[in-house]
UniProtKB/TrEMBL annotation, chain A:
Cellular component terms (Gene Ontology): COP9 signalosome; cytoplasm
Highest taxon of source: Eukaryota
Domain PCI, first and last residues per copy: 241-411
Lineage start: Eukaryota, Fungi, Dikarya, Ascomycota, Pezizomycotina
Organism: Orbilia javanica
Intracellular or extracellular location(s): Cytoplasm; Nucleus
Cross-referenced InterPro entries: PCI_dom, Rpn7/CSN1, Rpn7_N, WH_DNA-bd_sf
Transmembrane segments: none
Keywords annotated in UniProt: Coiled coil, Cytoplasm, Nucleus, Signalosome
Keyword presence, Metal-binding: no
Pfam families: PCI, RPN7
Descriptive protein name: PCI domain-containing protein
SUPFAM superfamilies xrefs: Winged helix' DNA-binding domain (SSF46785)
Family designation: Belongs to the CSN1 family.
Coiled coil found in the keyword field: yes
From TrEMBL, chain B:
Major location category of this protein: cytoplasm
Protein name (database record): COP9 signalosome complex subunit 3
Location of the PCI domain: 207-382
GO cellular component, one term: COP9 signalosome
PROSITE patterns noted in UniProt: PCI
GO annotation terms (biological process): ubiquitin-dependent protein catabolic process
Alphabetically ordered keywords of this record: Cytoplasm, Nucleus, Signalosome
Subcellular location: Cytoplasm; Nucleus
Family that this chain belongs to: Belongs to the CSN3 family.
Organism: Orbilia javanica
Domain of life: Eukaryota
Length: 477, 499
């Protein structure tokens, strides 16, 4: 009894702040990214593109495009408003209409339908109350399965109407009432979905770890592995860990088809996987792990330009690779998962290209390099200086003859120098430790001014020899 | 009187006494002298013991004679000081080892005299000699209150180089607990801080940093932090900038309370270091102007100025790894000279001289070439080269370092043995393990200690194979002798434990 009341309370009161935080985070994001407005049309067709997704992801992407791409804004937002109205998600509706007011103030849809809002809010409230009442009665009957279903219905209801924090809480509560492994998996997957929607990627990672413990049979693996891989990949991507993200995406089983298009389509997997691989792997790894991967090939066939970029990088045609990527920049800027990372990824690809380009040479003219990367030579020089100073490129610039020469490395000397430095460091540390030990042995520690020494006990009493020894030897090696 | 002189002259009976016999005779003489009245010891004008006895051969007699003279007349120091200085610069520490109190008493009189006439330089030589003779067996390696006095006097006299022979000897022992009332933690901290200041004055930054690091990581009881440590922290920041040229990191050995207190008290210094590490000349100039007064009040502006001077040097050095050739104008435009103001544009000719100076000091390896352009003006290109690295030089350094490492390893083992025999360790093990504790200690101790010789030996074998490091005598024989020093097999557990 009491439990169901507290549930209602939490759902209303303490749940709201969490969601509000998320809400606040979104406008901030858009505020800080107002600079990233894509004025040109991307290469894809909006209707076809959005048709690939289902569930909330459709709305999320539409709103994202609506906020970042003025030419497509009206169309995207109007579609979004239609879906949101059908879902009865009042908050997202307000948001969508506000955005539409900026781009198309004269559109009939750009006025808030107060009547609808009021009606829907009431309906949603009624349904929530009904579901909670049902749950309460299930709880009184103490039937586990019914309680689970009660929580699930409530969670689904919160999810479609946009109260994600409450939805997450309802789904988490199911855990205690799950009787089979399958139920557990379904529950965790729902949680992951909500976390992705909320952009809380650390929770995604913990839930992914949880779900891996529950995959027991091969059948489970077949069904759930792709979803888990994609979810993990998205989480790694968001935390900037491109190598692990790439491995996650590449390891995705192509059997996923459209099963997980509430998060990403197969095309997305190809793009995310390809880009993160380009940003984090060297040429050999690209060949063995990406281009030769039988599973990832299926994905790459959907996005041939990513394949071309990967092949170009692998066959050292860096300029071509970079120009392909540059051509699709707008598309990627309109992807909610990629937008924040696209500059970093491109930067990493560029850096790697320059470093890899230089490996076989002992000396290149600056002009040849700037031609290969298609930038003016002054800019090239600046870029090179930056790379050299950050220690990524082992080269020197000859400004007189406009050459880039590689540095000679004397490995023997370096090893000797390293050894010497290490030995000196060791000696210094050992001497310091021994002095300290001797200070304690002679009872010469710094003492508090007289009259303040309370209950310290005899000097050195607490410091047995063992501590001194470990203090001394602990730092030895 | 006559007996006093004869007795003193009769010691030592023969030059080849065994240490035991020598000690016995010395003790007897010491007891005899202690019983004499001051008048006897002071002698008369006709037979002045100070004239009859030799400073080196009859150190003990002379010491007691001084003692007599001083106790007769307090102001004798005014006449005696040249003789006192001679005595303290020459005496034989072996003879005075049973009469340390008397020795320090007389020395105190001399020091008071030096203070009174404000001539610290007079005290340097006597102090230096006394430090080496005071603890006869270990000499200057055992810390004494004289260490602090000596270094302080060197600073007062601004005679930094005189201090180096003593400072360069690493302190290995402190007086046994309670044996020397004059030594407190303050003396130890002061010695290391003053020592660091002298090293800073002589531009031996590495050593200065070691000394300061010791001050900072000095063990304390509870949360106690000394003001000396706070001062050391300020200097440490600047010395690290001098050494590394980048942001300093607090060594991990510093106890938390000390680090926290130092951070609070030395905030301007940290800010300065952060500005320095950014490598942005404008930022650094602004920060330097801000902290200048604070640094001046602390007496640290001198090093800070050297750091600023060094900024340019480091900047040019960094260029050598990025560029192989660069024109003087391009270097000048980088605005590395933070000492001058930004408005006075760097003069290319001055910069050229500066770079030549750096080449002369072998800080960088580069060559300058002048070429005239079509419009008649000349431009100067600097070509940077790699610093030459001679393998034989490095191997030589490595050999020296290995010897030092072996030495420090041996020291560590001796100290460990002493710790294993200390009361604290024994009560600790017996409390912890009950009656079986003692066995445990043996096992434990050797487990840890055995790593040491093995590491050292591995290094030596490699090195011997590479560079033929055992140059003296029969190659294999010499090698085995060398090994013998730290072979754990003949490491008996019998302590050479004398305190």
């Amino acid at each position: 009894m009491a439990d169901s009341f507290s549930l209602a309370d939490e759902g209303g009161a303490s749940g709201a702040p969490a969601y509000d935080e998320f809400e606040q985070a979104l406008p901030q994001q858009t505020a800080s990214t107002t600079l990233i407005l894509v004025p040109e049309l991307p290469k894809f067709d909006l209707e076809q593109y959005i048709g690939n997704y289902s569930g909330r992801m459709k709305v999320t992407r539409l709103l994202f495009i609506g906020n970042h791409c003025p030419p497509l804004a009206a169309e995207a937002l109007k579609t979004a408003i239609g879906i949101v109205k059908a879902d009865r998600d009042v908050r997202l509706y307000r948001q969508a209409v506000q955005s539409l007011q900026i781009f198309a103030p004269n559109d009939p849809d750009s006025k808030l339908d107060e009547e609808w809002i009021e009606k829907t809010t009431r309906e949603v409230k009624q349904k929530t109350d009904r579901l909670e009442a049902e749950l309460k009665s299930y709880k009184n009957n103490m039937i586990k399965e019914s309680i689970r279903i009660g929580h699930k219905d409530l969670g689904d209801h919160f999810y479609t109407t946009g109260d994600l924090a409450s939805a997450y809480r309802a789904f988490s509560r199911m855990r205690d009432y799950c009787t089979s492994n399958k139920q557990m998996l379904d529950m965790t997957l729902s949680c992951i979905l909500i976390c992705i929607d909320q952009a809380q990627y650390t929770s995604v990672q913990t839930n992914v770890a949880k779900i891996r413990n529950h995959i027991r049979s091969d059948d489970d693996l077949k069904v759930h592995q792709p979803k888990v891989s994609i979810a993990a990949g998205v989480a790694f991507l968001a935390s900037g860990n491109y190598l692990d993200a790439a491995r996650s995406f590449i390891g995705t089983n192509p059997a996923v088809g459209n099963d997980y298009n509430t998060v990403a389509t197969m095309n997305d997997v190809a793009i995310y996987g390809g880009l993160t691989a380009l940003a984090s792997m060297d040429r050999n790894m690209l060949k063995t792990e990406v281009l030769d991967s039988t599973t990832f090939r299926t994905f790459l066939e959907l996005e041939p330009h990513i394949r071309r970029a990967l092949t170009a990088f692998h066959s050292s045609r860096y300029g071509e690779c970079l120009s392909i990527l540059e051509g699709y920049r707008n598309d990627y800027l309109l992807d909610p998962f990629l937008q924040k990372h696209i500059d970093k990824i491109y930067e990493a690809v560029r850096t790697k290209s320059i470093v890899q380009y230089f490996i076989p040479f002992s000396c290149v003219t600056l002009d040849a390099m700037s031609a290969a990367f298609g930038v003016p030579s002054e800019q090239m020089e600046k870029e090179l200086v930056r790379l050299i100073e950050s220690g990524k490129l082992h080269a020197r610039i000859d400004t007189q003859n406009r050459l880039v020469t590689s540095k000679e490395t004397q490995l023997r000397v370096e090893v000797h120098r390293g050894t010497l430095a290490m030995a000196e460091e060791y000696e210094r540390a050992a001497r310091l430790k021994m002095l300290q030990i001797n200070v304690v042995r002679s009872g010469l520690e710094i003492k508090p001014p007289k009259g303040q020494l309370t209950g310290q006990g005899p000097i050195g009493g607490g410091l047995g020899g063992r501590e001194l020894r470990s203090m001394m030897f602990g730092n030895g090696a | 009187m006559e007996r006093f002189i004869t007795n003193v002259l009769a010691f030592p009976a023969s030059p080849d006494l065994t240490p035991a016999e020598y000690n016995k005779d010395l003790k007897a003489l010491n007891d005899f002298l202690a019983k004499q009245s001051p008048q006897t010891l002071a002698g008369t004008r006709d037979s002045d013991p100070l004239e009859l006895l030799d400073n080196r051969a009859n150190s003990l007699g002379i010491l007691y004679s001084f003692l007599g003279r001083i106790s007769v007349d307090k102001n004798e120091a005014h006449q005696l000081w040249p003789k006192l200085i001679d005595f303290f610069s020459e005496f034989d520490g072996r003879q005075t080892k049973f009469s340390k109190d008397q020795l320090l008493g007389v020395l105190k009189v001399l020091l008071q005299f030096c203070d009174a006439c404000n001539k610290p330089i007079l005290a340097l030589k006597p102090l230096e000699h006394t430090i080496t003779q005071l603890n006869y067996a270990t000499g200057a390696k055992t810390f004494s209150s004289l260490h602090t006095k000596f270094v302080k006097k060197c600073l007062d006299a601004r005679s930094f180089r005189t201090a180096l022979p003593i400072l360069d000897i690493d302190i290995e022992e402190f007086p046994v607990k309670g044996s020397d009332k004059d030594v407190t933690y303050r003396e130890v901290l002061q010695y290391f801080l003053y020592g660091a200041m002298i090293y800073m004055a002589t531009k031996k930054w590495r050593r200065a940093s070691d000394f300061l690091q010791f001050v900072l990581s000095y063990p304390g009881i509870g949360n106690t932090v000394s003001q000396i440590q706070a001062d050391a922290f300020k200097k440490f920041v600047l010395v690290t900038l001098m050494l590394e040229g980048r942001n300093f990191q607090l060594p991990r050995t510093i106890p938390q309370p000390t680090a926290r207190a130092c951070r609070i008290l030395g905030r301007p210094y940290e800010a300065f270091a952060t500005a320095y590490a950014t490598g942005n000349p404008d930022l650094l100039r602004r920060e330097a102007a801000l902290v200048k007064e604070i640094f001046q009040a602390d007496g640290n502006w001198g090093i800070a100025e050297q750091c600023l001077e060094n900024f340019r040097r480091l900047g040019i050095k960094a260029l050598t790894s990025t560029y192989s050739t660069l024109s003087i104008e391009a270097i000048a435009s980088r605005d590395l000279d933070v000492l001058g103001s930004k408005t006075s544009a760097t003069n290319p000719e001055e910069l050229e001289r500066y770079i030549l100076d750096m080449i002369d000091r072998k800080e960088i390896k580069a060559s300058l070439s002048h070429s005239s352009t079509n419009d008649g003006s000349t431009s100067c290109m600097v070509s940077f080269h790699d610093l030459p690295a001679s393998e034989t030089d490095i191997l030589k350094d490595l050999e020296v370092q290995i010897a030092r490492t072996v030495q420090i390893t041996n020291q560590a083992r001796q100290l460990d043995k002493k710790l294993g025999l200390s009361k604290e360790w024994i009560s600790f093990t017996s409390k912890k393990r009950g009656p079986g504790g003692a066995n445990d200690h043996v096992d434990q101790g050797f487990e840890e200690m055995d790593d040491y010789p093995i590491q050292g030996r591995g290094g030596i074998i490699d090195m011997a194979a590479m560079g033929g490091m055992v140059g003296v005598g029969m190659e294999t024989q010499g090698f085995h002798d060398y090994m013998g020093v730290y072979d754990p097999a003949d490491d008996d557990m019998q302590p050479d434990y004398d305190d």
